[in-house]
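Quick bug: asparaginase output formatted oddly.
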Amino acid sequence: MVPIKSFLVALATLAWQSSASPLLYSRGANGTGFVFTNANGLNFTQMNHTLPNITIFATGGTIAGSDSSSTATTGYTSGAVGVRALIDAVPSMLDIANVAGVQTANVGSEDITSDILISLSKQINKLVCDDSTMAGAVVTHGTDTLEETAFFLDATVNCGKPVIIVGAMRPSTAISADGPFNLLESVTVAASTKAKNRGAMIVMNDRIASAYYTTKTNANTMDTFKAMEMGFLGEMISNTPFFFYPPVQPTGKKDFDISNVKEIPRVDILFSYEDMHNDTLYNAVESGAKGIVIAGAGAGGVTTSFNYAMEDVINRLGIPIIQSMRTVNGEVPLSDVESNSATHIASGYLNPQKSRILLGLLLAKSSNITEIASTFALNTNA
Ligand code: DAS
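Here's what came back:
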């Protein structure tokens, strides 16, 4: 006769094991491919309770691109493949995490708008940050403007859960397409506890890079994303992340709560060059720009005449102008642009496209020129 106490202990152990063991479901019997839907309506093709839950937000780009030629790395169709196909193309990601997919958009990244950015940020905050069952987010994106979206999400998603932005330089139909492995590495980092409290990151080509500083340095090659002065945050070896530093925040980073933001005011970027004309500045303002970023020559340089026009627009129209640099690296310090007759604002280490995102977020919060200047000043050396 088994003593009652041993029987109860065995029963309790069995109950614990059955509840703790992975409830690995086969694919949905009705052919939908989904076996689990969470409280936010996100569908999963597996639900293994020993694995973290990740959501992939797809926006289009080359990673979802296709072409009839297996050697084409240009001229293909961006955003031709949906999020479910991206997930199904990398079954080994299901050894790492339970994965849901959201099709936020399906465009080449040159067509990503600030409305899409607002929607994407609010989706991630709602479906990942606010859901305790979710571990992290991955955003698949075209590479051309990926750094702008990455900067925007780094500024507006601040719950400490990993947000990984990933693209590809070759379409999914190309020989040795980089998208599938980039996506696997991104899901792996998003599922890693070591990736927490590091803000948004870009994971591509075995590199883990800062969303705040990283830029696309080469129009064509797979190793294009770099922050050449700041370096990488980590590396992927055999799909295992190694971080070079403990979690840190970039100098100058400002967090934004955009839960009540409906739109981002227009900010235009003007490129500086020999013989540049002042009317480009007035045309931008007359066309509705509420802020201007200058991709200046060297450390924010513009012609003498253009500088006078800038001071007129700043003083007479109250339009903030950020002086950034057309060089890929380096800094625009305030000492190189300031004057006594207007509030000149230097971008510091932020390039023009990232400065434009930051200025847009500040204007959306109706920041005045003094607040804008003090925020950018956090990014400069002097
Ligand atoms: N198709 C371009 C884009 O969407 C390039 C790319 O994704 O790599 O940005």
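Actually, after a second look the formatting is fine. Residues 267-377 form a domain with the Rossmann fold fold (CATH 3.40.50.40). Closing.
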